[in-house]
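Lab notebook, bench 4. The sequencing result for the construct came back, and we need a structural model before the next group meeting so we can plan mutations. Quick request posted to the team channel:

Model the 3D structure of this chain.
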Amino acid sequence: MSAEATNPVSAVDAAATDTGVRRRGRARLDLRRLGRAALLGATAGPAPRDRLPDAISHVAEAHRAHHPEADLSVLRQAYVLAESSHRGQFRKSGEPYITHPLAVTLILAELGAETTTLTASLLHDTVEDTEVTLDQVRREFGDEVAYLVDGVTKVEKIDYGAAAEPETFRKMLLATGDDVRVMSIKLADRLHNMRTLGVMRPEKQARIAKVTRDVLIPLAERLGVQALKTELEDLVFAILHPEEYETTRALIADATGSGSPDALAAVAEQVAAVLRAADIAAEVLVRPRHFVSVHRVRLKRGELRGCDFGRLLVLVAEDADCYAVLGELHTCFTPLISEFKDFIAAPKFNLYQSLHTAIAAPDGGVAEVLIRTHRMHKVAEAGVVALGSPYGTAEPSESDGPAEDGERTDPTRPGWLARLLDWQESAPDPDTFWSSLRADLAEDREITVFRADGGTLGLPAGATCVDAAYAQHGYAAHACLGARVNGRLAPLSTVLSDGDTVQLLLAQDSGSGPSPAWLDHARTPAARIAITGWLQAHPDAAAQPAAAPRAPLSVAADRSSGAELHADVDGPPAPVRPAGCCTPVPPDTITGFRVRGGAVTAHRTGCPAVAVMHRLGRAAVPVRWGDAAHCRVTLVAESFGRPGLLADLTEAIATAGAEVVSATVEPPSEQRVRHTYTLQLADAAELPHLMRAMRAVPGVYDVARTHRL
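Done. Here's the predicted structure in token form:
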């Protein structure tokens, strides 16, 4: 059997009951009463076709609350099959086994799951634990329900032993990745089992709780199912941290039973009055925090005040109303600007949208406020469960159709889940997969970067150009040489920010491979697994010692004079020379400053040194160009190392008619090479042509005049 036994007096049940009361305002369903109803249904025969069996009426009521027009006949049919197939099976507590699929289905119905998901939930253990076959499910309920039941069955067949843990969740992703509803059913199944975990041995409770904490709770967060996530957190908290749980429970009990005025309710009344005066239709609710949230606030703020035991929730009709509410709150109350977050303009990776702010409460505390529309609230609570069937045909779109290869396309599949499915196939062993999975799930923020071709890449916060390369090009990223970030050449170690534009630069030689140093910059499992695989397949390349540091290569020639410069100074003429920091050439606009020895240096007017001179109180000296057209200029070429590059650059410079006065080639760094040339031009007007010729050399990605202090 896949479900655990029930112990109604356990601390786990107490945590579940408390959480259910605090979140939904009523106790969760009495499973023993459901069990008796199921037994009565078994002895009295099937219910008449014009009504549902009593045991499933609670599910029907919850389902109709979200879907008033839903056809409940299929639920009746599924219940009858589930009850008859599980008849004679009992949970460890002695309850009829049918109480488990009923409880799981009720959880999903309260979240707003559509009929297909509820049907599959009622049947989710039949193929595994009874004589019902998948073909029978397909004949009676269709391909969609059979697909979901098959996915859940594959998950349930996985060995949850401690030694099998890594492979367990690798198989889980394979079984659930093509339809997020499979994972939704699995999460509801785990929630009910956690609620009824009390009769298990303490060590088994702890093991199951740790697995739930490490993988299933982060998955619930990623799917946006906050209602499941928060209750699972409290149940795990009660098992793994019983002392902290009891302390938190006592604090909540004291706060709610002290008889003192509710500080947060008073703030809610003030907020509601302000919004009524502003003619904004809004519903203001007090949302008590769950146990783990109260515990975190206590660790953050120390002594708890009345407003710390909950948050205000303001529900409105339209997105624009959210910002209108925000404006009124920040006008009529004292806001804490540091607490403001806009998840409407920039939704979180799990579909969550809301405005977060905080205002000062009369008792000196802080009242946190969530502002969202009713639809945002539904998605915030139920995540992908609230989106209905991703394969419905009511409003088809081009993206909803089948893929060219015949595979199903899930428009609700988050980008992180698609990435997990891509890289898990490349994981060399279960342990690598497990560690990579936990690291990926630990990331709580996602960024979006734009590709040069107009597409986008979803990456975890802190990702680098290495991660972007493997996300875009897969194994072809082994030949990546560097990247342009927002138009400028950047090393592969560059950490990307939300909204950056990234152009990955690949070598033409497909035989090149990654450096072991790339692992220091790779944050995503896809990149790390691909790099590790290549290094293991090419041990000779991976074992090559790093090249010894090389001194810069310098080549110098006869230094002839640059363009003519003249300074308008009193007294004898002063020698004028171009500044080395910005190397001005005709017809640049220039200004001069006296230096030691009475000479004058000429700078481009935009040179940072000019601003420094002015701050130091140095007087500017008027300077101008003479009639001579020749000039001297220093250029910096950024490139990726390859054989013959220096020769090709020198040839391009010579072909353009420039004379090399000096050249410096710095040692390669992350496959990047920096060339600095001081060049003599017969005519300053040829400078743009020279720079274009240097950029045209293969491997050169940027050429610019020096501009340094």
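The chain has a mean pLDDT of 76.
Will bring this to the meeting.
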